[in-house]
Amino acid sequence: MEGFVKSEIKDGVGTIIFYHPQSNSMPGYQLRALADEITKLGADDNAKVIIVKSEGEKAFCAGASFDELISIKDIETGTTFFSGFAGVINAIRKAPKFIIVRVQGKAVGGGVGIACSGDYTFGVKEASVKLSELAVGIGPFVVGPAVERKIGKSAFCELTINATEWRSAQWANEKGLYAELFDSTGEMDNAIQSLAQKLAGSNPEAMAMLKKNMWEGCEHWDKLLIERAGMSGKLVLSEFTVNAINKFKTK
Questions:
Q1: By residue range, what is the domain housing residue 42?
Q2: Strands 13-19 and 4-10: what pairing?
Q3: What domain count does the chain have?
Q4: Per-residue pLDDT tens for 34-45?
């Protein structure tokens, strides 16, 4: 079964859902589709606020697709793939609407980047986080600016260096990744709908101006994140990374 990205708008609330059978890991085509949907709803006057969520219960997003990573054979292809995460982050940053991210399960690598890019991110107690890139010989170069902006340099370094260890949802909540944390998805969904409806009835112009102010200082990310994608695109070709990914795939 292939992954998908779909969206709908109801009562002023735009909802974007993504899914992939491999723990919601993200191949390149799906990253591009997700960025496109965010941009599309950002330009649609019928959507006053946007919710980004994934299907399933166990994983919000497992990051990059290992199947696609292992197939990369040149730096251009690698840069293009990692630019997919850059595209999603920049689409969230530039959308003139507040974006709520719903994290119902574990987030890894690029999934942490998406969660950190949300303007207001909800999580449940099972939604632990991990930046595992260094463990496979790469590094969280593309998502790094978004993660550091959300939780600070010290916490970002902690996640980056200890790349094989999970950090609990409580830890993520304390660091500011999650604005609110819940015991169940039902409680979380009720809170998300309540906030979304309040925002749908708020002044769109005021929210757009606030969004721009909140992301002030990140205007250079269009260039920066592509440069970072090139770093990952180079490292993914290394013998270390190829061997490490193959070991992960055989577990």
A1: 4-186
A2: antiparallel
A3: 1
A4: 999 999 999 999
